[in-house]
Amino acid sequence: MASPNDLQFQEFEEAAELLSADPGASTLSMSASIASSAAAGEEVKLDLSEDEDTQEESSELLGSQKPTASFLTFEYYQSFFDVDTVQVLDRVKGSVMPLPGRNFIKHYLRSNPDLYGPFWICATLVFSVAISGNLSTFLSERGNPDYHYRPQFHRVTIAAVVIFLYAWLVPIGLWSFLTWRQGAERQVGGYSFLETVCVYGYSLFIYIPTSVLWIIPSEWLHWTLVLVAMAISGSVLVLTFWPVVRDDTKLTAVATVGTIIVLHALLAVGCKMYFFQTAARLPVSEATNNYNASTTGVH
Amino acid sequence: MAAADESSRPFAGLSDVSISGDIPVEGDISVPVGPSRRDDEFSTLDEPVKETILRDLRAVGNKFIHVLYPKRSSALLRDWDLWGPLLLCVTLALLLQGGAAKGDDQSGPQFAEVFVIIWFGSIIITLNSKLLGGTISFFQSLCVLGYCIMPLTVAMATCRIVLLVPNSLVSFVVRLVVVTASFGWSTFASTAFLADSQPPNRKALVVYPVFLFYFVIAWMILTFTPTQ
């Protein structure tokens, strides 16, 4: 019948159109996605003998949407976890060492965003912040005979709420804002929602070793580490989002990037201030017990 | 209606045929005998209650022994049950009670928090391993993760006994050693059961959440401080 051929030609026209609009990245992502889907044994997106789903697929063929099944099936969600150990480690490395030329999404994700990294990095961060905070409170109170060690387990709940809200709500807001700004004509230049969540999740990785190092009860070390971690993970985010906003008006571009940095800084500083208080600034309920310690505990 | 007519037509001519009683009808009807379990299922109504309960207890105890000596056997996987994990979870949550003053928000985990962490954590790890392409079933994985909490429960009981002695540094070192050893044992035992069901290039991705899970439980056990 003529219809498979028509679909094929239609798809090539669209492909050529999209290629001319954005030459550099799209070919890379196509070959990578074919390679990865062939490797994983999934159906290649160019297979047109399938059902009517392929019509929608071909229109976003060179975009970054992967799923080929209905969102009610398990396979849909499995497509978000299609990564190997080596790939995850590679992405983590890329988030810790941001080089100026490398866009995290284009270079490391290559249209295969995953949810494994963001979710488990956030979970690890929650526990590392809560546990390290507890240890740092304990260590900074060592000289005080009135101090009884408390596990402070409620901090885990607070840390979990804050970190998971940050890792999900901020990408939602940023992605909706960017998609709205681009309008209908430049849908190739934008990132998908999953890629935004992915880059935010991986950018939080640097805070895990930072929070472990915050156990050392020294104020200037804390602030140095905050600045270093913010610089690294902030630059990952800026390098990723700057190419997308720079074509917009100057004000919007600067405002967007500025908001990203400010929110990131708020998270880092907020975590540090709440979870890692040195002896001078413990919560009020223990202040009366530790009033004497504040002069002897701080060096 | 038409279908009924059609089907009755082949037999239309037989409506007035009657078979006299002395025509011998013979033949063989053989029913394949099912596993003898079928007979047992019907007869378990008659057995004493003690027997019924002991059967489940023996199955649970058998799995405890498999966790104690983790070889690559399939007993835990084949006949999964969730009694053991429930028992262990309740025991652990009860032992973690009696920490620093109740109602003080600086104290250790509440009973419900321990439950949520253990069950919710096991469910998330199971979902994670299935999403990564594992071949283990949902309840088998819950069963393995739950049973492998046993070394940590034993460590918790030991810690509570050690804490009866007021000396703080020695008791802390002893508790640290015991909890670290049991944490390693739990992780090793559960990976011995779970690792085979994963594709080889993703094993580390599946083992890491298990490591994190038992680490958090070990942390809760280690930081338990009784009321002063």
- The portion of residues assigned to helices of chain B is 55-70%
| Helix-strand pattern of chain B | HHHHHHHHHH
Give the helix tally of chain B.
10
Number of continuous helical runs of chain A: 14
DSSP, total strands of chain A: 0
Strand content of chain A: under 5%
Order of helices and strands of chain A: HHHHHHHHHHHHHH
- Name the largest protein-protein interface in this structure: A-B, 26 and 31 residues
Structural class of chain B: mainly alpha
Residues in helices of chain A, as a percent range: 55-70%
Beginning-to-end CA distance, first to last residue of chain B:
85 Å
Relative strand content of chain B: under 5%
Q: Mean pLDDT across all residues of chain A, rounded? A: 73
Summary keywords:
heterodimer; A: 299 residues; mainly alpha; 0% strand; globular; B: 228 residues; 10 helices; elongated
Task: Give an overview of the whole structure.
- The complex is a heterodimer of chains A (299) and B (228).
- By secondary structure, chain A is mainly alpha-helical.
- Chain A contains 14 helices and no strands.
- Chain A has helices spanning 2-21, 23-40, 53-59, 74-78, 85-96, 104-109, 116-140, 154-182, 193-203, 207-213, 219-245, 250-275, 284-287, 291-297.
- Chain A is globular.
- The model of chain A is unreliable at 24-64 and 279-290 (pLDDT under 50).
- Chain B has a domain at 74-226.
- Chain B is 62% helix and 0% strand.
- Chain B has 10 helices and no strands.
- In chain B, helix 5 packs parallel to helix 8 (150-162).
- Chain B is elongated, with a radius of gyration of 28 Å.
- Chain B starts with a helix and ends in a 6-residue tail after the last helix.
- The mean pLDDT of chain B is 81.
- Chain A binds chain B through residues 74, 77-78, 80-81, 83-86, 88, 116, 120, 123-124, 127, 131, 134, 148-154, 157, 285, and chain B through 99-100, 104-110, 113, 128, 130-133, 201-205, 208-209, 212, 215-216, 219-220, 223-225, 228.
- Chain A: Residues 49-59 have a biased composition (Acidic residues).
- Chain A: Residues 43-63 are annotated as: Disordered.
- Chain A: This is Protein YIPF.
- Chain A: Keywords: Membrane, Transmembrane, Transmembrane helix.
